[in-house]
Amino acid sequence: MIKRFVLLLCLLTLGLGSFARADEGMWLFNAFPKDKVQAKYGFAPDRAWLDHVRLSSARAPNGSSSFVSPDGLIFTNHHIAQECIHDLSTNGKDYMKNGFYSPTRAEEPKCPGVEFVVLEDIDDVTTKVNAAVKPGMSTADAGKAQREEMSSLEKECSINGMRCDVVTLYSGAMYNLYKYKKYDDIRLVFAPEFDMAFFGGDPDNFEYPRYDLDISFFRAYENGEAAKIHDYLKWSPVGVKEGDLVFVSGHPGRTGRLLTVDQLSFLRDYQYPIQLKSYSRRIAMLQKFSAASEENAREAESDVFGLQNAFKAVTGYQDGLLDKDLMATKAADEKALHNFVNSDAKLKAEFGDPWAEIAKAVDVQKQIYKPLGYLDNLGGFRGDLARDARDIVRAAEEKQKPSNQRIRGFQDSALPTLEQRLFSTAPIYKSLEQALLAESLAEMQDVLGADNADVKKALAGKTPDERAKELISGTKLDDVAVRKQLYEGGEAAVKASNDPLIVLMRQIDPDARAIRQRNEDEVESVLRRDGGYIGKALFAKEGLKVPPDATFTLRLSYGAVEGYKLNGKNVPWFTTMGGAYKHAAEHGSKPPYQLPESWLKAKSSIDLNTPFDTVSTPDIIGGNSGSPVINKNAEVVGIVFDGNIESLPWNFEYSDKVARSVEVDSRAIIESLRKIYHADALANELTGTEGGAMKPNPQNKMRKPVNKQQ
User: Fold this and answer.
1) CA atoms of 443 and 664, how far apart (whole Å)
2) Nearest to residue 278, comparing CAs of 321, 247, 307?
3) What is the rounded distance in angstroms from the CA atom of residue 511 to the CA atom of residue 288?
4) Is the sign of the CA dihedral 617, 640, 643, 611 positive or negative?
5) What are the Cα distances from residue 497, in Å, to 380, 382, 383, 388, 494?
6) What's the pTM?
7) Which residues face 176 on adjacent strands?
């Protein structure tokens, strides 16, 4: 049973002020504002409802998902499943291009190195983490003590296959221990063609109207059999209409709504411009690589998609911070909270001026951002092989230390996940690895300078292209057995290795560790301490009426299915399957607006008026991709796969005036599975039907849209 925030719930809950607006909120399951939902929508989810939805939700490696049958069936986006689909596309089979469907469980192939987790319990450990800080400790020592306590709590909890993570909330004012059940035997069931999953390509990304079937299905297995799942989401037999209340249960990545103005300015003026420049050159490199051959294009397809998506997202985030009104609102909120602290002698004595301390930390962050990114975060050494080499080198050193004194990610509780990825049998393409490494070495040289000591170590007197070719052609880390031998051999094996990537990481790692340590001591520890003070001040002023920033942990959002008006034009809440054919024709039916052959053949058999993609107001951000959209009966009515371009500033401030989440409608999914892909067994499993006929139900009629279709 989830343990509530006993202490924090006793804090004052004064007026909400300007901190939370409309249906804003990526809410914790153990602090969901059910009374607020009841007041606006006439429905208050009780604890049983919340527990059922939480246990039906799962975190994917890079997004969200949900269980949708008692036999372990998992529902997510195609772009969340891409890594598995791509890795399984070998021996002349291109599942990314042609799609995949396994009509029987015996034919469901296992995804290499993939793990899904379900949040089974939450424990408030704020007191324990804070108790690790002793009077008189420096900020750096206090941060170290807290990290060690967090690692100890995770190790103590991680038994019987359980994965446990201490999650920092409200910038460090609260710590929760999240306990996850792991599923590491994940098999692919269905994926449509890439052309349909990403119809409209990059031009339509973060846009609306949309016509994408961005879905995929996996199945979780345990002991060689389909996992038996008690909590799963049933499929709605009627779908939604405009105005319906819907919920989104997922794992939003990161938001910055509680950041200080100094932190927001750092993102706007420093970090985002650097990121965008990097994305641009990497996209150009991969497009050039892809143009060389059809096989190169297949190998790089997922990377190109990811970078283009990131470029557009960060552009939207930066545009939000360039909005003077948004920044003025942030400054006003900060001033109001600052004045609240200064007006209370006790709070002022306890917290001091955390905004000033964070400003100093941000100055340090500017100084170390580039070397931290290129060395410790491997921005200068991109690719799976370089990452594997660094993990092996670091693991050899870290595993000699007590678990709670290791770098985060190498504690005993985290090693099973690291090992699953490190020993994955996913294919590695050396030509792509060489291209990625050469470009990252060149970028690091340009940004840090040719005279930088680490750049000189990395290049060893050669050009980036020459060095990348030498390193990738010489390494044997593409062999799983070699990676395993080095990892299990520990320090002796790593020191004795002459593999060029291992040698390089041995040379670079001391400086990478040093810059990482400075970041932890002078930036992260300060942000945790003083961000925690601001969080506590916010509690004192607002109570738990303000949700914490997203942390790629499970949250629940709510809102309504609702169109919007943009530039004087009404934008309907739904598109139709027939609209996809019209959209393709309007663009000459050429990539990225080319419908796959399966859709062209099935046009006469499908109901062209079936709602396809929809928009609604629940609060989402990157990481919510794959989140189920459910009604008040906890039934699936759709799946989040995007937001419109106007939603990107939600990273910093929520508004439902024109911003919307974008979903694939559940009705289009069933129509496609049955009439286009002939995946009747899958459709039957989802809907509880036999032979394509819906089980008797007086309410079982497809609910048609009530406004003009497009």
Assistant:
1) 38
2) 307
3) 33
4) negative
5) 22, 21, 20, 14, 5
6) 0.90
7) 124, 167
| Residues, the chain | 710
Cα distance between residue 439 and residue 289, in whole Å: 11
User: Quick check: is 47 in a domain?
Assistant: yes
pLDDT in tens, 377-406: 999 999 999 999 999 999 999 999 999 999
Instruction: Supply the range of the domain harboring residue 205.
Output: 6-17+25-233
Enumerate the β-bridge partners of residue 421.
none
What residues contact residue 655 under an 8 Å CB cut-off, 6+ apart? 21, 22, 649
Q: How remote is the C-alpha of 511 from its chain's centroid? A: 29
- Is the predicted pLDDT of residue 543 greater than 80, yes or no? no
Q: Residue 655's closest CA among 23, 7, 19?
A: 23
pLDDT over threshold 90, residue 692: no
Compute the CA torsion angle 338, 343, 345, 346 (nearest 10 deg).
-60
pLDDT at residue 706, rounded to an integer? 36
Q: Is 49 exposed, middle or buried (0-12, 13-18, 19+ CB in 10 A)?
A: middle
In this structure, is residue 202 part of a structural domain? yes
* 367 vs 592: CA distance, rounded Å: 42
Burial state string for 336-355 with b = 16 or more CB within 10 A and e = fewer than 16: ebbebbeeeeebeeebeebb
Interatomic CA distance for residues 121 and 258, integer angstroms: 26
Strand partners, 614: 574, 663
Please state, in angstroms and as integers, the Cα–Cα distance from residue 447 to each residue in 275, 450, 514, 536, following that order: 12, 9, 19, 39
Provide the pLDDT for residue 690: 62
Q: Which residue has the tokens 């290499």?
A: 112
Q: CB neighbours of 328 closer than 8 A, spacing ≥ 6?
A: none
The number of folded domains in the chain is 1
Write phi, then psi, for 251 (nearest 5 degrees).
Answer: -120, 75
Residue 216 domain flag: yes
Neighbour tally for 570: CB within 10 Å: 11
Q: Is residue 99 part of a domain?
A: yes
What the block records as the tokens of 126 is 């704020």
CA dihedral angle for residue 215, residue 554, residue 206, residue 574, rounded to 10 degrees: 60
Domain harbouring 136, CATH code: 2.40.10.10
Is the pLDDT assigned to residue 7 strictly greater than 60? Answer: no
- Whether the CB-CB separation of 523 and 376 falls below 8 Å is answered with no
